[in-house]
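STRUCTURE:
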């Protein structure tokens, strides 16, 4: 996706007419239209255009039942997590049907790993992490390994081991960033901050906020500074 590379301004422009087009079509769309609605909600949220973000999310929720492909709603949940928060995103994930096929399993795990870690559901996280690490090797999906490492960093931080958590998360997210998922890496770093001790969170928050601002992710940048 265009926002994976950190081009939130490009995503905002590309989805500018998505809501109007779906309404014009009588509130009918396909899965690609749902992805565009989720992207519009995210881009507008990050740009501080809350009314536009809310409209896109409302239309998304109104049309999703008829447009989601079985087992493929996970991509939109990953996209929407910054907008709706991790608790709401987890409820959306748990309401999804089981994945069908390898690609669907990958998308589910990409969405599930951060949500289980942020919820502190370490039993289910361990199950998802084991599945993710296997798929990372067998299905050529290296991002799963790095996201699983980030989740382990959250666990370490939650146990008061901030120094180890920072080292593990920094390595994992640097790899994810180089892989091309700049926005995802930056957002995961922000999601880690509340679990860290104050000194570690403050040290990481400033650089994270600057990277997010460069991408046009103003809401996430402001959130990072608040967490500092």
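SEQUENCE:
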């Amino acid at each position: 996706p265009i926002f994976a590379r950190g081009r939130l301004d490009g995503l905002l422009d590309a989805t500018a007419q998505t809501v109007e087009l779906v309404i014009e079509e009588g509130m009918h769309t396909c899965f690609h239209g749902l992805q565009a609605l989720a992207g519009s909600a995210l881009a507008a949220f990050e740009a501080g255009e809350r009314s536009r973000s809310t409209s896109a999310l409302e239309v998304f929720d109104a049309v999703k039942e008829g447009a989601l492909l079985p087992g493929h709603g996970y991509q939109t949940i990953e996209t929407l997590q910054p907008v709706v928060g991790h608790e709401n995103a987890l409820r959306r994930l748990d309401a999804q049907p089981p994945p069908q096929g390898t690609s669907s399993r990958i998308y589910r795990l990409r969405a599930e790993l951060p949500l289980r870690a942020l919820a502190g559901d370490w039993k289910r996280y361990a199950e998802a992490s084991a599945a993710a690490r296997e798929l990372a090797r067998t299905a050529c999906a290296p991002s799963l390994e790095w996201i699983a490492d980030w989740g382990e960093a959250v666990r370490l931080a939650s146990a008061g081991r901030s120094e180890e958590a920072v080292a593990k998360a920094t390595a994992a997210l640097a790899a994810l960033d180089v892989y091309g998922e700049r926005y995802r890496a930056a957002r995961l770093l922000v999601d880690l901050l509340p679990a860290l001790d104050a000194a570690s969170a403050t040290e990481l928050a400033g650089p994270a906020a600057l990277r997010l601002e460069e991408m046009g992710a103003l809401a996430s940048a402001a959130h990072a500074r608040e967490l500092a």
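REMARK: The longest helix spans residues 50-67.
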